[in-house]
Design brief:
The protein is about 50% helix and about 15% strand. It is α/β, with parallel strands linked by helices. Helix 20 links the parallel strand 18 and strand 19. Helix 22 packs parallel to helix 25, helix 26 runs antiparallel to helix 27 and helix 28 packs across helix 30. The two termini are about 55 Å apart. The structure holds phosphoenolpyruvate and magnesium ion.
Length: about 950
């Protein structure tokens, strides 16, 4: 019979079954189950429990029934727990109560269901009153069960229970739940049971086993609840993992003032600071803390009330962190002075905290630098480089009295948006109206997650730093402020206010998740500074060291054996400076035509295009030469010592000309109004533009074709490049220009143009008396034919750079300007394409062409330098492919350089040959031991 259920002391069996792989263990019994099993093994006080596996859940999803034998195994495990605790399930004299808690492989905080206090019935409640002498506690627990069971298992809306309680308290003149007496709670139990009867037509089950059975089923079902599915989609968690179900003996934090409950992180999950951060409540049950309904106390205050339990807690959590080498997110309950640990799992953290914790743990010697690098995702680096509030603008907003409120800074970052007071409206406004949205709620519940995902920021008036809103926002990297208690939110009138300041729904606010300040205005933002983020700088330095390791790639002779370098696409010196400060070690693409679009240059460019003779064209180009030279000079200076790839003009000429339709309208208007001044010139221009018209310009006169058709332009550009290079060299700057010819389709094109250009380069250097200067001529591989004939192309080209925007467009035959707004989304939704191929490289088609082009190109020229400069150069998945096929570098937008540096290190480690991977300190020690052993053996033999 298949085993569906594991008891608290069966960790070894699970490990054995899963080949000793802890990740696999988590896959079977869920993260929570694995943590509980591991803690039990380590002697940490954990209430006896058993876990129903994810496999059982997956069976249930298929058939809608428990798999054969599962329920019987649950009953058997329950008997074991009864023996261990000395209590009996459903026994009025000494009742055992349990919780039924979800727990998938990856933590999905609050996304699935939990039912506490299972086993309470009229009979067992009466028995527990006898036993504990505490009827208030018992009836409070009982009403919680009826409420949770009613909402979670029976699907009754929360309000059906919340309203009668609110009304009751109002009638009695109570403000807080703590004012409710035993009789009051008993009364509520009755009322709640009536709610169940009214909504469902049957009674709340008085059979504890029925309660357990239905709760298990409800947890299984919650795997496919809307919020869980939304969450998994957002987090890219597969939908077929299933959840485990943990049945855990109840311990009570609400048995009086010597009891309590709390949640904590072993380090600050928002900033990464190495200091326990948590909250607790005396005389409360677990969900009270997380729900943010009661105001909690910081964990350090527990020391005053229960020093022994506090010290034990600190000791256990510190050991847990050392054991898992990860920040732990723990839940605990103290029942009459005795500490129980209910959960430990790796804590969700913000991007900022992830970086700090990884670097700190490496510096503390807990993990290796490689591990630190691996722990931070490229997308987290992206978050850290998102814009921040401009410090000056913040001061100004404060001076102008725009500071609206202050709360707990739960998740850092800046967000500006329009206020909406519920998740559905927030999502609608963001998705349909494309608004920037801030979701404001008294507190959030798991049902609000879709609104949070759609929002730029989240603000709540209640709850603490471990409340639902805080935990979820941190995980999603959404700036968030919680517990801004001075704000009064009127959900009916759709306004919030602080004293006499009012913000209505739809109005703009700014949320500073780093400080906890809320402004009733739009505060301007600026780019984030990398230099100020010292831990991130350290981590990226380690990433570069990994990528630079010799022999991290195995490759044929001449091919790169280090990891990828990261270069940047930059058109202007200021972009190049940013790229360099972000760690780029080259410019992979300077699109020179962008310089032609400058307002003062465009008329000259147009004159040059319209010139009827080569002499007239050259005259216009001579006017452009000094400005082009200046552009290049600035680039070389910014990139002193690094290669700079300058691409010769690429786009079709009509892109530089005025809009045809507009011009035609002007001409017609002038004709109708009989205005003659300037009409002839306009008509001539119109005729010229019409003559230039192409039906399919992306495949028309552009790239190298244009250079052959009209060589004067590129001749001027090459002159400008080498004059600038020579001038810089004379100023002592180390210049490495690389001239890139775009859109080559046949080697004959290079044969035609390249020698002419090399002659110009040589002539300029001779004129300037420069004896030695490193330069290259190469080409972009953007046309499938170029990739297919790469061996021949490499006989002229000294380098290849994959222009994967065009290469994708031409390989698929999709116009990149039209595909994305038309059919591409449908293609991805329908599964015809796995992803948008303009964002993530299509390995099977485009990628295969690239792989072939590199291999063929290097048969002709083994040292051929290969890069990528299409948009894919900053996409981690595409970067991995570039590493695998033997690129020397990837080039991307300056803002993505740090992301690409981290991604390059990740893929280098992922694909490293075994012996290079083994170069971590721990393994070295093992290796040394092995050598010692071997030596001893040989000595013996001698
Ligand atoms: C490309 O095609 O990938 C490329 C970088 O060139 P552009 O986007 O300028 O056509
Ligand atoms: Mg291109």
């Amino acid at each position: 019979m298949k085993k569906w259920v594991y008891l608290y002391d069966e960790v070894k069996e699970v490990e054995k079954l899963r080949g000793g792989d802890w990740d696999e263990v988590k896959g079977l019994v869920g993260g929570k189950g694995a943590g509980l099993l591991d803690m039990t093994r380590a002697g940490v006080p954990v209430p006896p429990f058993f876990t129903v596996t994810t496999e059982a859940c997956n069976e249930f999803q298929k058939t809608g029934k428990f798999p054969a034998g599962m329920w019987e195994q649950e009953l058997k495990a329950l008997k074991e727990i009864e023996q261990k605790t000395g209590k009996n399930f459903g026994d009025p004299k000494n009742p055992l109560l349990v919780s039924c808690r979800s727990g998938a492989k990856f933590s999905m905080p609050g996304m699935m269901d939990t039912v506490l206090n299972i086993g309470l019935t009229d009979a067992t409640a009466a028995g527990m009153v006898e036993l504990t002498g505490n009827p208030r506690f018992v009836y409070d627990a009982y009403r919680r069960l009826v409420e949770m069971f009613g909402t979670v298992v029976l699907g009754i809306p929360d309000e059906a229970f919340e309203e009668p309680l609110k009304e009751y308290k109002h009638r009695k003149g109570y403000n807080l739940d703590t004012e409710m007496t035993a009789d009051d709670w008993k009364q509520m139990v009755r009322q709640f049971r009536d709610v169940v009867k009214q909504h469902k037509g049957f009674d709340f089950p008085q059979d504890p086993l029925k309660q357990l059975e239905l709760a298990t089923e409800a947890v299984f079902k919650s795997w496919n609840g809307k919020r869980a599915v939304d969450y998994r989609n957002h987090e890219h968690i597969p939908h077929d993992l299933g959840t485990a179900v943990n049945i855990v003996t109840m311990v009570f934090g609400n048995m009086g003032d010597d009891s309590g409950t709390g949640v904590a992180f072993t380090r600050n999950p928002s900033t990464g600071e190495r200091k326990m951060m948590g909250e607790y409540l005396l005389n409360a049950q677990g969900e009270d803390v997380v729900a943010g309904i009661r105001n909690t106390d910081p964990i350090e205050n527990l020391k005053k009330y229960m020093p022994q339990a506090y010290n034990q807690f600190m000791d256990i959590t510190s050991k847990l962190e050392t054991h898992y080498k990860e920040i732990q997110d723990v839940e605990f309950t103290i029942e009459r002075g005795k500490l129980w640990m209910l959960q430990t799992r790796n804590g969700k953290r913000t991007a900022q905290a992830a970086v700090k914790i990884a670097v700190d743990m490496a510096n503390e010697g807990l993990i290796s630098k490689e591990e630190a690098v691996k722990r931070v995702g490229p997308e987290q680096v992206d978050t850290l480089l998102h814009p921040q509030f401009d410090p000056e603008a913040l001061k100004k907003a404060e001076r102008e009295g725009k500071l609206f409120a202050k709360g707990v800074n739960a998740s850092p970052g800046a967000a500006v948006g329009q206020v909406y007071f519920d998740a559905d409206t927030a999502e609608k406004m963001a998705k349909e109206n494309k608004q920037e949205v801030i979701m404001v709620r008294p507190f959030t519940k798991p049902d609000d997650v879709h609104g949070m995902i759609a929002a730029k920021g989240v603000l709540t008036s209640e709850g603490g730093a471990t409340s639902h809103a805080a935990v979820v926002a941190r995980q999603f990297g959404i700036p968030c402020i919680v517990g801004a208690s001075m704000i009064k939110i009127d959900l009916e009138k759709r306004v919030m206010s602080v004293d006499n300041k009012i913000v209505r729904e739809g109005e703009w606010i700014s949320v500073d998740g780093t400080t906890g300040n809320v402004f009733a205005s739009k505060v301007p933002m600026t780019a984030a500074s990398l230099e100020e983020q010292t831990e991130l700088m350290t981590l990226l330095k380690w990433a570069d060291e990994i990528s630079a390791r010799k022999d991290i790639r195995t490759a044929p002779k001449g091919w790169p054996t280090r990891g990828l370098q990261v270069w940047a696409n930059a058109d202007y010196p200021k972009d190049a400076r940013r790229a360099r400060s972000y760690g780029a070690v080259g410019i992979g693409l300077c699109r020179t035509e962008h310089m032609f679009f400058e307002p003062e240059r465009l008329p000259i460019v147009q004159r040059m295009i319209l010139a009827e003779t080569s002499a007239a064209r050259t005259q216009a180009l001579n006017e452009l030469l000094p400005t082009q030279r200046k552009d290049f000079d600035g680039l070389f200076e910014a990139m002193d010592g690094y290669p700079v790839i300058i691409r010769l003009i690429d786009p079709p000429l009509h892109e530089f000309m005025p809009d045809e339709e507009k011009l035609f309208e002007e001409v017609v208007t002038m004709r109708v109004k009989s205005e003659t001044a300037g009409l002839a010139e306009k008509e001539k221009l119109l005729a010229a533009i019409r003559a230039m018209h192409e039906s399919n310009p992306m495949m028309g006169l552009r790239g190298v074709r244009l250079s052959i058709y009209m060589p004067e332009i590129v001749e001027m550009q090459v002159r400008a490049i080498f004059e600038a290079a020579a001038d810089c060299a004379l100023r002592g700057i180390v210049v490495k220009p690389e001239v890139m010819i775009p859109l080559t389709g046949t080697v004959k094109e290079l044969e035609w143009i390249q020698p002419r250009l090399i002659r110009i380069a040589a002539a300029v250097l001779a004129e300037k008396n420069i004896k030695k200067l490193d330069y290259k001529f190469g080409t972009m591989i953007e046309i499938p034919r170029a990739a297919v004939t790469a061996a021949e192309i490499a006989s002229h080209a000294q380098f290849f750079s994959f222009g994967t925007n065009d290469l994708t467009q031409m390989t698929f035959g999709y116009s990149r300007d039209d595909a994305e707004r038309n059919f591409l989304i449908t293609y991805v939704e329908q599964g015809i394409l796995p992803k948008n191929p303009f964002q993530t490289l299509d390995r099977d088609g485009v990628g295969r062409l690239m792989k072939m082009a590199i291999a063929d190109g290097r048969t002709t020229r083994p040292e051929l330098e290969v890069g990528i400069c299409g948009e894919h150069g900053g996409d981690p998945e595409s970067i991995e492919w570039c590493h695998m096929i033997g690129n020397n570098y990837v080039s991307c937008s300056p803002f993505r350089v740090p992301i690409a540096r981290l991604a390059a290190a990740h893929v280098a480690l992922k694909h490293a040959p075994k012996k290079v991977k083994a170069a971590t300190p721990k393994k070295k020690a093992v290796a040394k031991k092995a050598v010692k052993k071997a030596k001893a053996k040989t000595a013996k033999r001698k």
